[in-house]
Write a structure and sequence with these properties.
The protein is mainly α. It has helices at residues 5-19, 23-33, 46-60, 62-76, 81-105, 112-128, 138-156, 166-171, 183-198, 210-224, 230-239, 244-250, 255-279. Helices cover 70% and strands 0% of the residues. The relative contact order is 0.08.
Length: 280
């Protein structure tokens, strides 16, 4: 099961879709026609077929997921019951990402199930109207477009822009080869790092990694969520750079004062980090 009520309902619906006779063979037929090779094997069921596709995704990477998703997205763009089945298979494949997206879009006053309904509705829209000329990074593009659309829908329901996604998402491109088993995380980190740069948390050309990279992502998320003032976030980001302590000492900041600053930062970030972990 994928999670609370909205996603539990989708899992229950999926079981009914899978129970319909002939659907697995129909989808397998599309995949064969589209050049996604399955030899002469027969589909035992839609769930088993989807599990096999995901297993091959992990083994073969994004090229494989691009191929089979594109085949089904071409069918999903049509009309009628067959198009709905094709769309439903893709949606089911994307549900783990939708769950995590829902968790990360939660803000004060937003109910999980209501947010999840918006995310799922947007995911369906994106699947049905996916631009087929985009042949690379299909899963990542689905998530980015869903995140963009869901953020706009959720913003329309509130008076404040809790997640200023638009300029970030419109220019975001997942660099390199995303991890085959964690496209959601790759997309999310790409967006957060773009936000970090726009918020002034990174210097020109700076590419943080390791512990500092995680700190910058936390700061960007906290600013977007309204949990941390952007000026304070910039100070913390500056203080976490290599050589920051030495620079402070040269400026006359004592070791005691530096430790007090660090302790205050840790106290301030600890509850924010707890919320970030829960959202992940």
């Amino acid at each position: 099961m994928t999670g609370p009520r909205i996603f539990e309902s989708l899992d229950a619906e999926w079981a009914l879709v899978c129970a319909e006779a002939g659907r697995a063979e129909m989808v397998l037929g599309w995949l064969r026609e589209g050049g996604v090779l399955f030899g002469d094997e027969r589909a035992r069921g839609l769930s088993e077929l989807l599990a096999e596709l995901e297993c091959r995704d992990r083994a073969q990477g994004r090229v494989h997921s691009d191929r089979w998703m594109r085949v089904l997205l071409e069918r999903a763009a049509g009309e009628g019951a067959k198009a709905q089945v094709a769309a439903r298979v893709v949606v089911q494949a994307m549900l783990p990402g939708a769950v995590r997206m829902t968790q990360r879009l939660l803000r004060a006053g937003r109910d999980f199930d209501e947010t999840g309904q918006v995310v799922v509705a947007c995911l369906y829209q994106v699947v049905r109207r996916y631009p087929l000329h985009r042949t690379s990074g299909v899963a990542a593009n689905l998530l980015l477009e869903t995140l963009h659309l869901a953020s706009r829908e959720l913003q329309a329901d509130t008076e404040t822009d809790a997640v200023p996604w638009h300029p970030v998402l419109e220019s975001a491109a997942v660099p390199g080869e995303p991890a085959a088993d964690d496209t959601t995380e790759t997309v999310w980190r790409t967006v957060l790092r773009r936000q970090a740069a726009e918020a002034g948390l990174l210097r020109a050309g700076e590419v943080p990694d390791g512990a500092r990279g995680e700190l910058v992502e936390l700061l960007a998320w906290a600013v977007a969520a309204g949990l941390l003032d952007v000026v304070r976030a910039r100070v913390i980001a500056d203080e976490s750079r290599a050589g920051a302590r030495e620079n402070a000492e040269r400026a006359g900041v004592s070791a005691v004062t530096w430790r007090q600053r660090r302790s205050r930062t840790v106290r301030q970030l600890r509850p924010i980090a707890d919320q970030w972990v829960q959202a992940a």
